[in-house]
Amino acid sequence: MGAIDLRSDTVTLPSASMRAAIASAPVGDDQFGEDPSVNRLQERSAAILGKEAALFVPTGTMANQVALRVLTRPGDAVVLTRESHLVWYEAGAAPANAGVQLTEVGGRGTFTREEFLSACWPPGHLLSPPTTCLVIENTHNRAGGVVFPAAEAARICAAAADRGVRAYLDGARLWNAAVAVGCPPAELAAPFDLVSVAFSKGLGAPGGSLLAGSADLIRTATRYRRMSGGAMRQVGFFAAAALHALEHNMARLADDHANARRLAEGLAASARLRVDVDRVQTNIVMVHLVEGAPDAAQLVQRAKEAGVLMVAFGPRTVRAVTHLDVSAQACLRAAEVVAELAEARAA
Ligand SMILES: *Cc1c(COP(=O)(O)O)cnc(C)c1O
To answer: Closest Cα to residue 219, out of 70, 34, 61?
Structure first.
C-alpha cells in the first residue's frame, strides 16, 4: 500500500476524467486572447466570485505578488493577518517585488476592525509610510485552516474603503471557506477589490490560480503578470483541468473537512498530542506535541517510516492536510499510527 500523504492538499494527482478533459481541451495563444479554455475559465470564475473580470496566473504566489503591485506603490505599508502566507512562504517576494512594508496584526488566523485601524498609518504623514492595502487570508493556513468571520471581514473592508485603503483576499483556500460556512464564494469575496483563488489545492488540478476584480484592476494585473514572466501561451490545458475541478471537486470539499475532523478526533485520543478539534473547520489539522512526546521532526520521520506523511510546522507542531486522494479510512488509519508513535519515548 502506498503512503498516506497528508503533507498538503497540493499533492493530489489528476483523475482519469481530468486527464481526459486536459487532453481534449481547445487551446490557442493566450497572449492574443485566443485560448478558448482560458477565456471560459476566466469568465466562469469571475461569475462564481461575483467580479467583473478575472485573470489566470500560474501560481498563488504570483497572484499575491501581482495583486500587491496593482494595489500599492513602493514604500507603502500593507496590513495583513499574522503568520500570513505572504510573510512566511513567498521567499521575501512582497518587499522585493512590490517594495512594500508588511504589518502583521491579530492572531490565530483573524484580526478585528479595531486591530486593523490601530495598525493603519494615514496618508500624507511626513514620517510614517502610508497604509494603502489590507490582506485577509481565508482560510488561514498557519492557523490551521480557520475561516475568517465574514461579518468582521465586511466591517474591516468598509473601514478600509472609508480611508482609501484597498482590500485584497488571499483566497488560495477560499473554496474550503465557502463550503465550510455554506455560503457562495461571491459573498465572501464581495467586500474585496481583488481576490485570488487556487485550482491546485483542494480542487485537485495540477496547477493554476486566478485573480478576480474590476475590469480596470484586472487590466493592470495583466501588465504585472507579464512583468513577472507569468504570461503564457497554450495554457488552456491547465484551464481545462481547472474547469473540470470547479465542476466536479467543489461540493466534495465537505468530505475533506469531515475527514480532517475524523483525523483530529483520532489524534486527540492520545494524551501526548493536543489537537483543538473545534478549530478544525476545514481540511487542515494542527497537532501540538506535549512534553514527553517526540518532537515534530522525530514524529514526522517515524510517521514516514510507518507510511504516513506529514509536515513539521514548528519544533513541536505538525500539520496534516486532507484532500481528494485520501479516504476517510486512510485518515482513521493515519490517526491510529500517529497516536501510537506519539506514545513512544522521545529519542
Ligand atoms: C498555497 C498558498 C499560496 C501560494 O500558492 P502557490 O500556488 O503555492 O504559489 C498563497 N496563499 C495561501 C494562503 C496559500 O495557502
So the answer is: 70
In what side-by-side order are the strands of the sheet with 311-314?
273-274, 284-289, 317-321, 311-314
How large a percentage of the chain has pLDDT more than 70?
A: 99
Domain ranges of the chain: 16-248, 252-344
The CATH code of the domain at 16-248 is 3.40.640.10
All 3 cell numbers of residue 152?
468582521
Write down the pLDDT at residue 346: 62
Q: How far apart are CA 178 and CA 198, in angstroms?
A: 13
Contact residues of ligand 1, CB 6 A cut-off: 59-61, 64, 85, 137, 141, 170, 172-173, 198, 200, 209
CATH 3.90.1150.10 fits 252-344, yes or no: yes
Distances (CA, A) of 184 to 139, 173, 174, 326: 15, 14, 10, 26
**Ligand 1 centroid distance, CA of 212 (Å):** 16
Task: Residue 67: name the closest of 232, 211, 229, 226 by CA.
Answer: 211
The predicted model scores a pTM of 0.97
